[in-house]
Amino acid sequence: MDKVMRLVSENGLVLFSKSSCCLCYALKILFQEIGATPTVHELDQDPEGREMERAVMRLGCKAPVPAVFIGGKLVGSTNEVMSLHLSGELIPLLRPYKSISI
């Protein structure tokens, strides 16, 4: 859990992902389209990936990937991020962390 907490505290926008996950890919495309640059951690390519998956779930995410953190706080998975985007709340959340270019 320490590694996950350190990673999310060091960056404004963090995405825990797996390279084969289609929902993770959808979030990467969303962030790219709105001009955000997340720090992406591919858990299936990290030797500590399984431990990190468990840590993400202990922090409250229902599924280990995709898991999005903004400003060190768990936002959630695809549903939560898409809901924020559709309601117009995602971009204002990202602006303070300069993770967005618009």
UniProtKB/TrEMBL annotation:
The keyword Electron transport does not apply. One of its GO terms (cellular component) is cytoplasm. It comes from the Eukaryota. It comes from Hibiscus syriacus (Rose of Sharon). InterPro entries: GlrX-like_pln_2, Glutaredoxin, Thioredoxin-like_sf. Keywords: Cytoplasm, Redox-active center. This is Glutaredoxin-C1. Belongs to the glutaredoxin family. CC-type subfamily. The keyword Cytoplasm applies. Residues 14-75 form the Glutaredoxin domain. CDD domains: GRX_GRXh_1_2_like. NCBIfam families: GlrX-like_plant. Its main location: cytoplasm. Pfam families: Glutaredoxin. It is found in: Cytoplasm.
